[in-house]
Design a protein that fits this description.
CATH class: Alpha Beta
Number of domains: 1
Order of helices and strands: EHEEEHHEEHEEEHEHEH
Structural class: alpha+beta
Largest sheet: 7 strands, mixed
Number of strands: 11
Number of helices: 7
Strand content: 25-35%
Radius of gyration: 19 Å
Shape: globular
CATH architecture: 2-Layer Sandwich
CATH topology: Thymidylate Synthase, Chain A
Helix content: 25-40%
Oligomer: single chain
Length: about 280
Amino acid sequence: MAAPVLVVQGKNLPEVWEKSLLMLWENGIRVPTEYDKEGDEPSVDCTMVMVIEQPMSEPRLHLALPCSFKDLEKYRREVVDGVHDHWIAPEEGKWTYTYHQRLFTYDWEGKKIDQIALAIDKLARVPFTRRAQAITWNVGMDPKTNDPPCLQRLWLRCLKDTSGELRLNVNAHWRSRDAYKAAFMNMFALTDLQSRLAESLSLKTGMGVSVGQYVDIVDSYHIYGSYFPDFKDRFLKAVAEREFYSTSPGRSRTVRSDSPRVQREIQAANAELAAEEFRQ
C-alpha cells in the first residue's frame, strides 16, 4: 500500500487549507503513528501538494483554527523574526532548533550561515535561478532527536507574470505535517516571510518584486486519530454550517487579517512577546 498523492489549488490560504483537510479526510489512508496512545484511532494520512495562487489575499484567516490568533501571531514572529531563538539549548534538554535559526543562522562546522541572505543575493543577480534555497535538516543532530524539523527546504524563484511584473514564488518541502493543528500556522508564517523577502528583493534590486505563488509539498500530511472528535466538531461543523466568507456576524468561517478582532489579538501577542524579551 502507498499513501495517495493529493493536490489542491486555490486563491488564498484558508481556501487551500480547507480544501486540503477535506481532501485528506475523504481520501487519506489510515496509518498508525509513533505518538499514538492506547485506544487512539490510526491517523488519516496522504502525500499532499497545496498551491496557493495569491498567498497574501484576504481573507487570510480561518475561524476553525484550533488555536487563537494571539498564538498564531506569536508563531509568525517566531518563524519570521526569531523571537524564540533564545529558547534553543539542547544541552539543557530544551529546544534543538527553530525554523528561523536553521534558515538564518544555520550552524555549519561552527560557522553561522544566513541561507536566506545568500538566496536573496543569488536572486538579485539571477532572478530565475534554480539555486536559491535554504535547508533545515542537520545530519549530525536531527536523526537522533525526538522532535526533528518537519520543514526540510525552501526553494525560491522569481518569474515575470503576464503583465511583466516580477514575482517571488516559494516552494516549501516538508517531511511530515500535522494537517489540522500545525499546517495553517506554518503556511501563514512562511507566506508572511515570502512577503518580507519580496520586499527585500525590491529594495536590493530597485525593481518591483511582488508576492507570487506559494506551493506546499508534504510527504506525510496527517490528522491524528486523537484529534478526530475536535476536528469533526470544530472544522467539519464550520464547513457545513457557515459561508466561506461573510460580513454578517456568525455567518463566516473565515476572517480578514486586518479585522479589529484579529488586530486586538495581534497587539496582545506582541505585548506579551515584548514583556518576555524584557524579562530575559
